């Protein structure tokens, strides 16, 4: 073994600039052992009493934060498998409840199968008598095995937490098992945490419940509620002993999703200048022949089909403006139609491997591909189940809307006047009176609002409120609408269709050809920049004003909140408790109960928290469960149950899926915002019914038919 760079200094001024530094020595002992019965011709020299110096800033809360940089192993042996142990003894455990290890090295990411040819084993043990001068006796508490990549220059960081409550001293033993003599670079950090897992999960649940209370009761805007929740979660992490730096917190934000949203919002904002959305609204009305429910079903079906191949967020960014304009033309309330569309968008996204982020995560796992869960197999299985869900969901949606009046109760002239007042008032509020001219403009706008309000009162006295009926003379109405709503800028429309078609084509190509190293965010941003150049937009601020900045801020805060809750072990705890429930079920009923549990736990969890980190956490749990010889469960039914619940569960609440939030933000910008409870009254029953149909399909396919191979 060769140990390089034994002396180093770790400086972190952000902890405590005024505190005095202290030096602590840690003893690293090693012994060369051979795990092969064949004799080795080389002699191994015993390395002992190697001292590694750690220069660490003292922290206010006595947090111990050690870093071992670049522990390099060099194995000199001709045996086919050689192990080299090295130990680090920790005697300053005190009253810590958890030990968090962060190990960096050439590890295989997200691999659950531990039986590989080359791997690293980390043993966490308790030292019986640390005060004794004789050789310390170690009792192994935990074993952590990490498979190694063949390419040693790649670095993957992995983290795991161990319970060490009521332990006097802890020993960390690292052992490498290799086939050939070579160097393996490793880095390790360890940190003491003061709160146990149950306490952290309780705190995380309280924070999540508080965020939902703020959103449901509409005490503050949902973006501010997510920001307050993320701040509370970060404070809980600091109290527990883990203090992520600002750099790490910023890294928790999913910039690909934000770039996708921002780019598509710019594209849609320029697209709306052509009059294309009005034109599509009239065509949809003509296709439905004046029947409102036929039109709603056509819109929902098209949205479901598109979302099976496009991202759900992209589908709603394109569909929401068209739907709003269509409802304005027909004097319909857009809220009910938009909620129905976004529900079927989430259902359709579950049909293929590229329609929803949880499905993308599943098919991208190499371990699942090895058992036959590739793109074709996953899509073929899920497509059949989602078709059954759609067949039941359409009649159930009609049942939910049975007593709802889709038409506005007031004449269209009054509705348009109210909406015009709302838009003028919103425009006036957005003007910052920084100069005399801006103050004058704001006063003119408010005067315009007062004039329109007086006109509205006069019209309300003149017209009697009546519930509109479905148009009987729809052919005459269509002719009038076609004269009124036409394409206003055909040249700009051609440019927009060209760029948008290219962007959508690249979305498809990126899903099926992994060789293109552009994610969805980059494609959307490049398309937006390209269209801005072609359209020759001079009033750039007008386009930026149409971007839903509150929605982008909400997503950024939500990403931080979910990652902080994951660090508080909330998601891991849900997965572990689900696995424990499955293990206690009798073997003859275990598969059926496992499918039911995974579907409903995934659905309920995805309606409350982001389904992306939940899916990424549950996949290793389910793989471990299927590989446990005592459980004896096939892996495919478990993964399909996870996908079904995670995708369909997004319909449960307004923040259950990204498409829900995007649709609500755009609708709010147009003056038709809907609240958390408005969505919940329709979305949650649809989620219950769709998950029930999906669960029944999985039970028949895997328990009755035995479609597990």
From TrEMBL:
Domain of life of the native organism: Eukaryota
Biological processes annotated in GO: melanin biosynthetic process; melanocyte differentiation; transmembrane transport
Membrane spanning stretches: 199-217, 224-240, 260-280, 292-310, 375-401, 492-513, 519-537, 549-571, 591-609, 682-705
Entry annotated with the keyword Transport: yes
One GO CC term on file: melanosome membrane
Subcellular location: Membrane
Phylogenetic placement of the source organism: Eukaryota, Metazoa, Chordata, Craniata, Vertebrata
Coiled-coil boundaries: none
Region (Disordered): 1-21
Domain Citrate transporter-like: 212-645
Keywords: Membrane, Transmembrane, Transmembrane helix, Transport
Membrane topology term: Multi-pass membrane protein
The name this protein goes by in its record: OCA2 melanosomal transmembrane protein
The keyword Transmembrane helix belongs to this UniProt entry's keyword annotation: yes
């Amino acid at each position: 073994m060769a140990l390089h760079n034994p002396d180093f200094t770790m400086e972190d001024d952000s902890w405590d600039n005024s505190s005095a530094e202290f030096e602590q020595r840690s003893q690293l002992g090693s012994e060369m052992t051979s795990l092969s019965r064949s004799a080795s011709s080389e002699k191994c020299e015993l390395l002992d009493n190697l001292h590694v110096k750690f220069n660490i800033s003292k922290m206010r809360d006595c947090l111990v934060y050690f870093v071992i940089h670049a522990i390099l192993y060099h194995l000199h042996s001709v045996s086919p498998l050689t192990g080299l142990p090295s130990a680090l003894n920790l005697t300053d455990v005190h009253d810590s409840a958890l030990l968090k290890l962060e190990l960096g090295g050439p590890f295989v990411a997200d691999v659950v199968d531990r039986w590989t040819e080359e791997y690293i084993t980390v043993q966490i043990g308790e030292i019986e008598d640390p005060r004794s001068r004789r050789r310390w006796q170690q009792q192994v508490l935990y074993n952590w095995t990490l498979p190694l990549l063949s390419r040693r220059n790649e670095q993957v960081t992995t983290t795991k937490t161990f319970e060490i409550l009521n332990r006097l001293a802890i020993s960390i033993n690292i052992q490498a098992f290799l086939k050939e003599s070579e160097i393996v670079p490793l880095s390790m950090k360890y940190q003491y945490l003061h709160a146990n897992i149950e306490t952290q999960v309780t705190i995380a649940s309280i924070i999540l419940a508080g965020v939902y209370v703020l959103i449901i009761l509409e005490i503050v805007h949902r973006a501010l509620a997510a920001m307050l929740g993320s701040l509370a979660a970060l404070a809980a992490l600091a109290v527990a002993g883990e203090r992520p730096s600002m750099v790490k917190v910023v890294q928790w934000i999913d910039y690909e999703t934000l770039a996708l949203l921002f780019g598509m919002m710019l594209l849609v904002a320029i697209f709306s200048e052509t009059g294309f959305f009005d034109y599509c609204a009239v065509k949809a009305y003509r296709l439905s022949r004046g029947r409102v429910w036929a039109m709603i079903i056509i819109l929902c079906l098209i949205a479901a089909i598109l979302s099976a191949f496009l991202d759900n967020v992209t589908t709603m960014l394109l569909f929401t403006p068209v739907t709003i304009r269509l409802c304005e033309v027909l004097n319909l309330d857009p809220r009910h139609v938009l909620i129905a569309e976004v529900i079927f968008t989430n259902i359709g996204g579950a049909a293929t491997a590229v329609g929803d982020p949880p499905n993308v995560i599943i098919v991208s796992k190499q371990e699942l591909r090895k058992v036959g869960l590739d793109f074709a197999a996953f899509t073929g299985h899920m497509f059949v189940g989602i078709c059954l869900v759609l067949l039941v969901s359409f009649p159930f949606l009609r049942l939910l809307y049975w007593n709802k009046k889709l038409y506005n109760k007031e004449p269209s002239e009054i509705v348009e006047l109210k909406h015009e007042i709302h838009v003028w008032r919103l425009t006036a509020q957005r003007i910052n009176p920084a100069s005399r001219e801006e103050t004058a403009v704001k006063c003119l706008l408010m005067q315009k609002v007062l004039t329109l309000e007086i006109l509205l009162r006069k019209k309300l006295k003149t017209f009697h409120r009546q519930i509109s009926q479905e148009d009987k003379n729809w052919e005459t109405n269509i002719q009038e609408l076609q004269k009124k709503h036409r394409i206003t800028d055909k040249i700009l429309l051609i440019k927009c269709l060209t760029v948008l078609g290219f962007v959508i084509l690249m979305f498809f190509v990126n899903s099926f050809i992994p060789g293109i190293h552009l994610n969805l965010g980059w494609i959307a941003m490049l398309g937006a920049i390209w269209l801005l150049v072609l359209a020759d937009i001079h009033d750039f601020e007008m386009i930026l004003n149409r971007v839903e900045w509150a929605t982008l801020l909400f997503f950024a805060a939500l990403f931080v909140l979910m990652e902080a809750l994951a660090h508080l072990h909330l998601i891991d705890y849900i997965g572990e408790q689900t696995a424990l429930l499955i293990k206690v079920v009798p073997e003859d009923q275990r598969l059926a109960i496992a499918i039911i549990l995974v579907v409903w736990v995934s659905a309920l969890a995805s309606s409350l928290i982001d389904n992306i980190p939940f899916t990424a956490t549950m996949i290793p749990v389910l793989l471990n469960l299927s590989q446990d010889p005592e459980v004896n469960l096939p892996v495919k039914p478990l993964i399909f149950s996870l996908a079904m619940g995670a995708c369909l569960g997004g319909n449960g609440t307004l923040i259950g899926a990204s498409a829900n939030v995007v649709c609500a933000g755009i609708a709010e910008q147009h003056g038709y915002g809907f609240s958390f409870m408005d969505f919940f009254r329709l979305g949650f029953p649809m989620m219950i019914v769709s998950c029930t149909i999906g669960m029944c399909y999985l039970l028949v396919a895997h328990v009755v038919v035995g479609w597990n191979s």
